[in-house]
């Protein structure tokens, strides 16, 4: 299984979750876990996704999600799970 961490941060607006999830579904990327919160008008979401079934490379997916973030006014970052885990080890 190829797993990726996706984070979305920015001003809260209508449709952020829908647009990100539509992109994922349209590219056969399955959401394994998700947490989302808003705090004083700011939106924060973290997702763990399975990218095994997508035909896109990690770099292509990351670039498209970054572009989508620009379109909807948020910052979207992607990181392979193994790199995320290595960076956050104690």
Task: Describe the 3D structure.
With about 90 residues, the protein is of the alpha+beta class. The radius of gyration is 13 Å and the shape is globular. It has a 4-stranded antiparallel β-sheet. It has 3 helices and 4 strands. Strand 2 and strand 3 form a beta hairpin.
Kindly summarize this structure in a few lines.
The chain is of the alpha+beta class and 90 residues long. Helices cover 37% and strands 39% of the residues. Helix 1 packs antiparallel against helix 2 (58-72).
Q: What is the tally of beta strands?
A: 4
Coarse morphology: globular
Fraction of residues in β-strands? 35-45%
Helical stretch count?
Answer: 3
Strand order of the largest sheet: 2-3-1-4
Pattern of helices and strands: EHEEHEH
Radius of gyration from the alpha-carbon trace, in angstroms? 13 Å
**How would you sum up the major sheet?**
4 strands, antiparallel
Regions with pLDDT < 50 over 5+ consecutive residues? none
Q: Averaging pLDDT over every residue, what do you get?
A: 94
N- and C-termini, Cα separation: 25 Å
Class of secondary structure makeup: alpha+beta
Helix content: 25-40%
Keywords:
90 residues, alpha+beta, four-stranded antiparallel beta sheet, 3 helices, 37% helix
Topology:
Blueprint lengths: L2 E9 L4 H11 L3 E10 L2 E9 L7 H15 L1 E7 H7 L3
Antiparallel strand pairs: 1-3, 1-4, 2-3
Helix pairs in contact: 1-2
């Amino acid at each position: 299984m190829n797993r990726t961490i996706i984070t979305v941060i920015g001003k809260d607006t209508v449709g952020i979750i829908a647009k990100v999830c539509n992109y994922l579904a349209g590219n056969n990327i399955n959401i394994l876990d998700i947490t989302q919160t808003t705090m004083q008008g700011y939106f924060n979401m973290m997702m763990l996704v399975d990218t095994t079934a997508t035909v896109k490379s990690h770099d292509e997916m990351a670039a498209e999600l970054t572009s989508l973030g620009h379109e909807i006014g948020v910052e979207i970052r992607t990181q392979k799970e193994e790199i995320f885990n290595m960076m956050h080890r104690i």
